[in-house]
Amino acid sequence: MMTAEVQTTTTTTTTTTTTTGPTITLDYLRTVPGILKFVEILIGIIVIICASVSYWGGHGWIILMVILMVALAVVIIVFYLTNFVARIPRWRIVELVYLSTCVLIWLVNFIVAIVGTSNFPIAGRIATVIFCIFGLAAYGFDAFLSLRSYQGTPMFQTMTSEPEPAAAESMTATTTHAVQAQDEIDEEIKY
Fold first, then answer.
1. 10-33 burial, b for 16+ CB within 10 Å, e for fewer?
2. pLDDT tens digits along 71-130
3. Positive or negative torsion for Cα 107, 109, 112, 118
4. Alpha-carbon distance 159 to 93, whole Å?
């Protein structure tokens, strides 16, 4: 009786990447939410300028709130660029709450600006009202995208700290097939 010898070779490759400090990834700037953040900052700066050119009762509130929103938008861009969002648990909820709050603040800013303009309309006040509408629309769309992303059905590709469900299923299926293939090889070796 002749015995067949089966020789198997298993090669394992391990890649280890270490970073000594924060890395900057510019991928976020190419996404729709990244572009929206820059639009929000630009609209905020325009509203600050428009509200500053003429003194009226509500301009201080609008300027304060818009400065805070612009500063937070810059911080969020930095968080995405340095991939700090991957370290924050439940980042999608944090961003959704932030954007929803900004939508409410822009709505209040719009109401304050429209009331201030109705008494004595001048160009700066009218421009403030118009750009408050643009700010409300930009933050509203960003909040909508964030909600869709939180629900698991993003409309556009964004950078997230959690793997997408389809990617996780694909990784599980690949691992399962690899384990089954190894089991089949082991069975063949036994006989």
1. eeeeeeeeeeeeeeeeeebeebeb
2. 999 999 999 999 888 888 899 999 999 999 999 999 999 999 888 887 777 888 889 999
3. negative
4. 14
Identity (one letter) of the amino acid at 58? G
Count the Cβ atoms, other than its own, within 10 Å of residue 76: 22
What is the model's pTM? 0.68
Q: Which among 111, 15, 136 has a CA at the least distance from the CA of 57?
A: 111
- Residue 151 identity: Q
**What type of residue is 183?**
D
Give the CA-trace dihedral at 49, 81, 172, 16, to 10 degrees.
Answer: -170
Q: Which residue has the tokens 């976020």?
A: 28
Place of tokens 């660029």: 81
Query: What is the DSSP secondary-structure string of the chain?
Result: -------------------SS----GGGGGSHHHHHHHHHHHHHHHHHHHHHSS--TTHHHHHHHHHHHHHHHHHHHHHHHTTGGGGSTTHHHHHHHHHHHHHHHHHHHHHHHHHHHHHS--HHHHHHHHHHHHHHHHHHHHHHHHHHHHHT--SS----SS--HHHHHHHHHHHHHHHHHHHHHHHHHH-
Amino acid at 154: P
